[in-house]
Design a protein that fits this description.
With 650 residues, the chain is mostly beta strands. The chain is 6% helix and 55% strand. The longest helix has 16 residues.
């Protein structure tokens, strides 16, 4: 960390000393989850540059979900909310709480960085180091930004498919209280509450929630239900020590229990997951606000275990834990109102342990692993002519095992016609070292090579009729080399990696794939009258293997075609009604594309009625036409379900 911090400080000193500056220039806040990061303005983006920027100055493709949009969707699971955005798909092994994979533009789950209140959520003990979003509920979330495409410079080499930045509520009034309660199909109930306030020196909020459902069978043809229960807490407090200095602590905790099935039948097994996220930081401004700084420490702890009650002598079937400790420095320096720099240093230490007890060995030793990564980054943003914003950056990473690597990124945004036309383009590189589970678990392989990626996109956004309508089109492409996949072992195999030390194992990880993904995202919104809003998006994703026996085949569980359509009308009596449809094209469940998962269309009906400034009642019918569908072959999905609730704001 010391080496990384000194490198970043040296860069900052050079930038500051060489600047010709205007006296009154101020730098933006250097915290994506602070007061600026929690803002309720959809036209302001913080994730793309790690500072608040008008969306017309952002060269990357981004979708912003404000608190109003989140509440209007009535979504309970974050992954279902994200799937309403262009380029986002997911698969799940049953209902809420089960293993869930999130894919942006066809990238793997481990190629997307998920943040909550500024902290990366990727679990070192998960199969490929990605974040399992199955336990992530809406809770006290007030804002989500979905940044698509490679974002390696600011967010690390793993940010290949994109970045999802989730921010919990940050009060702006002296005292506020919120309560949300709902219930419905499958004996489902969800209660959320929070309170907080903002004063001259202290801003604080605490919140909690409890979710419970009897669920449905995770196995498609199963006969027993698989329930899920989740308890969550979150809190944040910010102290303004002076006009130039503030300190902040943020934390999110959840504990879930889910029943699950295998791919071939019902099971009595259940899983328990406990997740803790903590952030503490110090923010300070220098040079009268021209140079904003942030020192932060982030910690994540994920504990998981699976239990089979039908094995009383050895009920534990899986036991894993992953921890991440991360020190961060970020600086933002404003040379002029059209030229700024963002720079920083990070030092991350991750460790994991995992084991799979059996009746033959009920107490095996843990497989363990740890790794450290130091990095520095710098990014410049300039507006050489009015409306044209250029951004370029570089990141240097030093990995304990895989050495040093340098990555670059560049983007451009050109706002024309008084901002009604915006042209965008970006390029980014990615590099992912093998995860701890891929290296050190019972399926590990110490001879793995890093994955490498190049990503491009370009698009145009146009506003019509004085802002009453807008449309955008974006082309994207990503090329990957050395992607890591799980390789199964059959009995009697002569592959030496199937029998390390003479002991047979069911499989291992290996570098097997080159892949190429390209596609188009189309987005549209129109408000023909003030009370009517029609929005839609469509994504075409051609994600193919470029090597081996599966060359030319579509990557597993990646739909070529998907889209969303929503029609919302606000009636004069205070009632808002919405019809929302989501289409997901057919996918393949295996590399050879012989197992087909059929396409499907889901229709949801929603309504909300504002009683007064304090109370709102809402209700929805999910999967209104009771569509029978799957996201993974042989795993169940919910049928039609009706839910009603009450929302209160004091």
């Amino acid at each position: 960390m010391i080496r990384a911090f000194l490198s970043s400080t040296a860069l900052a000193t050079v930038l500051v000393s060489g600047a010709a500056m205007a006296d009154d220039q101020k730098a933006p806040e250097a915290d994506v989850a602070g007061a600026a990061g929690a803002n309720g303005v959809a036209e302001l983006v913080v994730t793309a540059t790690r500072t608040a920027q008008p969306i017309e100055k952002v060269g990357a493709s981004v979708t912003v979900l404000t608190q109003g949009a989140i509440e209007a969707s009535q979504s309970v699971s974050v992954v279902e909310l994200l799937a309403q955005a262009p380029g986002v798909s997911y698969t799940r092994n049953g209902g809420p709480g089960t293993s869930t994979s999130l894919n942006i533009r066809g990238a793997e789950t481990q190629h997307t960085v998920v943040l909550i209140d500024g902290v990366k959520l990727n679990d070192p003990s998960s199969t490929q180091g990605g974040f399992n979003s199955g336990n992530l509920l809406v809770g006290d979330i007030s804002r989500i930004e979905i940044l698509r495409g490679a974002q390696s410079t600011l967010w690390g080499s793993q940010a290949i498919g994109g970045v999802v930045n989730i921010v919990t509520a940050d009060p702006t009034v002296p005292f506020t209280t919120s309560v949300d309660v709902e219930g419905g199909a499958r004996q489902t109930g969800y209660l959320r509450a929070g309170l907080g306030g903002a004063g001259d020196r202290i801003t604080w909020r605490v919140a909690g929630g409890f979710y419970s459902t009897d669920g449905f069978s995770a196995y498609k043809a199963g006969t027993e239900t698989d329930g899920y229960h989740n308890t969550g807490l979150s809190g944040r407090v910010r102290f303004k020590l002076s006009d130039a200095v503030s300190a902040e602590v943020r934390s999110v905790w959840s504990k879930g229990k889910n029943d699950f099935d295998g791919f071939a039948g019902d099971s009595s097994e259940y899983g328990r997951t406990e997740e803790l996220v903590v952030y503490s930081g110090l923010n300070f401004a220098l040079l009268d606000g021209r140079w904003n700084n942030r020192l932060g420490y982030a910690y994540t702890d994920t504990d998981r275990e699976n239990v089979n009650p039908l094995r009383p002598a050895a009920p534990l079937t899986f036991d894993a834990a992953g921890k991440n400790k991360r020190w961060e420095y970020q600086g933002v320096f404003a040379f002029t109102d059209t030229f700024s720099a963002t720079f920083g240093a990070e030092s991350e230490n991750a460790r994991m342990r995992t084991r799979s007890p059996s009746t033959f060995d009920p107490n095996p030793a843990f497989k363990t692993g740890k790794v450290g990564v130091d990095s520095v980054y710098g990014q410049l943003q300039a507006e050489p002519i009015k409306g044209l914003t250029l951004t370029a950056g570089v990141r240097y990473e030093d990995h304990d095992t895989y050495g040093s690597h340098t990555l670059g990124q560049a983007s451009a945004a050109w706002a024309l016609n008084e901002g009604n036309t915006v042209l965008r383009a970006s390029f980014g590189q990615g590099f992912r070292a093998p995860g701890l589970y891929e290296l050190y678990s019972e399926y590990g392989n110490l001879d793995l090579s890093p994955e490498k990626f190049d990503s491009w996109d370009a698009g145009v956004e146009q506003r019509f009729f004085g802002g009453k309508a807008r449309a955008s089109a974006t082309w994207f492409q990503r090329e990957a080399d050395n992607e890591i996949r799980y390789n199964s072992c059959s009995s009697g195999s002569t592959d030496p990696l199937c029998t390390p030390g003479g002991v047979f194992r069911y499989g291992y990880y290996r570098n097997v794939q080159k892949t190429k993904t390209q596609g188009v995202e189309l987005i549209g919104e129109v408000k023909p009258v003030a009370a009517l809003t029609i929005t839609g998006n469509y994504t075409y994703t051609d994600a193919q293997s470029e090597s081996g026996a599966s060359k030319g085949k579509q990557l597993t569980r990646r739909p070529k075609n998907m889209g969303n359509l929503s029609v919302a009308y606000r009636w004069p009596v205070g009632l808002t009604t919405t019809v929302a449809a989501r289409y997901v094209g057919k996918t393949y469940n295996n590399d050879t594309n012989t197992q087909v998962v059929k396409d499907y269309t889901l229709v949801d009906l929603r309504a909300a009625y504002t009683i007064n400034e304090t109370y709102e009642v809402f209700g929805r019918v999910e999967n209104a036409f009771d569509k029978d569908y799957q996201t993974i072959l042989n795993y169940g999905t919910p049928g039609r379900g009706a839910f009603v609730g009450l929302r209160a704001r004091f």
